[in-house]
Amino acid sequence: MNLVVIGAQWGDEGKGKIVDFLAEGADIVLRYSGGANAGHTVVIEDQTYKLHLIPSGVLTPEKRTVLGIGMVVDLENLFEELGMLEERGVAWQGRVLLSDRAHLVLPRYRQMDKERDAERRFPLGTTGRGIGISYALKAYREGIRVADLYDPAVWRGLSAQDREYLEPYRKRIEGMVVDVSRLMHESRKSNVLFEGAQGTLLDLDHGTYPFVSSGISCAAGAAIGGGIGPQQIDQVVGVFKAYSTRVGNGPFPSEFRKERDGNLGDVIREIGREYGVTTGRPRRCGYLDLVSLRYACRSNGIDTLCLTHLDVYDAMGEIQACVAYRVGGEETDEFPATVSALEGAQPVLRRFPGWQKPITECRRESELPAAARDYVRFIEEYTQTPVEITSVGYRRDQTIVRQDPWTRS
User: Fold this and answer.
1) Exactly one of 20, 27, 40, 100 is catalytic; which is it?
2) Which of 9, 11, 120, 175 is the most buried (most CB within 10 A)?
């Protein structure tokens, strides 16, 4: 079975925990896009792991993990991450594989990335990791792939500076390099978990262009970056938070505003620990945007939703969610394509009673307070998509499963 996990918002939805949770049922976990600009946090007992390149499934013993075709890989960052895992007792040798067709991020790309963003009329707020440059050079057919390190003709054509940087890694990664398409074919009877990066609204085509990432973060990207055909995707799980967040610049219709919402944004940010894993930047916070969530469900063919951070609302007497936009004096429940419409959109909010009790010890849906169940039920009705996993804390065991996606028919 091929199961895809994607972000259904602007990234940072809690995919790391969910991939780690679902990895128990997988044989292989494959990350299909993005680079070290992603940050996935996984908490196991009293240990917190912050991963940027390596799939979150690496923390589950004996699972093979793959950096897929659609990724752009900074080898320096990769080995820093592998070193961190080794220091903390995670055996990765023989389990972490790297696509021969993945593109590489070189040190000089980082400065190019920052300079390019500074020159824009509307800066994107890039992480400055060189990701966008690597993807741009890939599209311009001037990129460097993993396989190119072993092609004498290509290697000789590289600059002395690039060869000097890459030379130490050629031997180190040699045993990790794999033809992903062949691996997937040979593993066609196995359970494969495809891990996305960022989120639908940061996808190059489906997102709030141009304020998007450069990779393919929608569900279809799993086929491209995972070396399979689209008909081979069996299930798509969309992860979203009980509220919304965004890092960097770009439209955010449901963002909390001081004049309307007081200090609610600061409160949610602190309770939810909403700071970027990669950059440490405070995330912009806002009401759950059901308009964009339904758009994500439709455009990705999401079969199952996974709700995270529901416990962040535990102490609140009332919560609200965005159910429509007011754009140019008219109300709409469709997600606009243009940045100008999204930037001018005002959220139409619906109020829900809070539950004002802790839910972090709940392990069954029936144990959730009635108000929490009502909130979830409304989300399902609005998006016409079932919420079958609910996370009520950072730990693996703080997860409520209505139906296991691995067994969903």
Assistant:
1) 40
2) 11
